Amino acid sequence: MTRFPWKGSRRLHLSSTCHRVAINGYLPLLTAFKSAFLQTAGHYAEFGEHGRQFAAFMTYAALEPLDGYTATDFQGAFGVLPIEGLRGAAQALSQAMEGVGEQREEYWKNRIWPFWQNNWPKSGDLVSPGIAGHLARMAIAAGNQFPAALAAIESWLTPIEHPDYLVKLLKKADHCRRFGQDSLKLLSAIMSQQRWGWEEIGQCLAEIVSGAPELASDPRYYHLHELAHQRRG
Question: In what helix (H) or strand (E) does residue 96 lie, and over which residues does it extend?
Answer without folding.
Answer: helix 83-98
